[in-house]
Amino acid sequence: GRVDRNPGRSRRYRIVTVPLQQGTHTYRPAIPKDKRNTSGTAVRMPDEVGEVMPFRYCEVEGAKGLTSADVVRIAVNVPFDDDAAYFHSSDSVLNAVWDLCKYSIKATSFTGYYVDGDRERIPYEADALINQLCHYATDCRYDVARRTFEYLIEHPTWPTEWILQMDLVAWYDYLYSGNTELIERYRDELQAHTLMALRDSETGLISSKRGQSREVLNSIRRRDPVSDIVDWPHSGILGLAQGQGGEDDGYVYTDFNTVVNAYHYAAVARLGEMMKAIGRNADAARFAYYAGQLRDDFNRAFLDSVRGIYVDGIGTDHASLHANVFATVFGLVPDEYKAFLDSKGIRYEESRDMNEVINKVDILYMTRVQKERFSDLMEYERVKNTYILHNKMLENTRDNLRILHPLPRVNEISTDVDENPKAYYFRQAENGLYTRMAIIAAILGAK
């Protein structure tokens, strides 16, 4: 044969012997089970499907006169709409990357869950979150993510950060589908998965090194304690020698971990938003307050203000890429404008709901959601209509309210606002013209 029977490393070779019968028949080889991915917490293949195995090359020996036209490959995956998403560019390599990634999402759905692949066939929270968002980008399906979420509620894995990511999985399910069923059904579990129970009263932070009582572990369905991971693999495992760098950028693990607490903040903040979505406003306010306090505690503990970077944890000055990326992505970095206001003792409020504040303001400055600032067009499509001003919204606003806009607008101000005396954006644009004329005249010395 021409297929390498000893490929080595993580590549596998499998041979299946098929007893032949006299005459012409159709044969379907019975793939033997691999103990590693068909035992323990591995997801089992349905009996009606049978065992499967991914392969790159297949060779048939001892079959005279057989051609490729006589061989049919049977593929197993969840229903997948190949036409739901499309990408094409002038770069052939980029096109090939898209095709590979899209096919990977389709092919690795063979169990009906987001699993690690064929190695273990076990769902992991971090893998599930990535698969979920990739699946949303390639096909409009929500059932696999929900099924995986429910599996992981009952079969959680060991990393601290991955427990916290369950709130993100539920959040994105709601964000993309508008469905609140998971939130309502698993409200208590989602709170448990924020790991607020591990909060240290002195620092305001959580730590996997303390507080993992049996009650806490039971609340997240864990038999054994969780441990911090940051990234995988670490140095000294999976073929890496001691001292040989892994994927965690030399991260220094301390009792209070920056990445863990960044995920903790993200989980609590998203939970607050989810509680608001199902009308539990008191819970929403409680989690929002907790998140605000945590943000302050996080920056007090981990932000090195002299160097302007985040360290890996309390007790180390090492600053890894991971510590800084997660703090940035989850919105924990102090806003320089807020810092300026704080330094001057100027009071301010933040809100994501225009209706909450519109009746309290003197100036309402509108602007469009800028498409060019989004790398993910699906994300733009999701949020582009979030803040739209209609004339009816102005009924109870202050008499001295003035609505400004840099213009041109897209659809963020409805045309029915234009005739409202509080609409000042056209006068704003006109005054800007005269101001620029005056500046140019001054520069040129014209009178």
Describe the fold and architecture:
This protein starts with 91 loop residues before the first helix and ends with a helix. The model has no long low-confidence stretch (mean pLDDT 90). Helix 2 (125-138) packs parallel to helix 4. It is globular, with a radius of gyration of 28 Å. Helices cover 37% and strands 2% of the residues. It has helices spanning 92-107, 125-138, 143-154, 160-177, 181-185, 187-192, 214-219, 258-277, 281-302, 321-329, 336-343, 354-357, 377-383, 425-444; strands at 303-304, 309-310, 363-365, 402-404. The strands form two sheets. The chain has a two-stranded antiparallel sheet with strand order 1-2. A two-stranded parallel sheet has the order 3-4. The longest helix is centred in the middle third of the chain and has 22 residues, at 281-302. It is an all-alpha fold and 447 residues long.
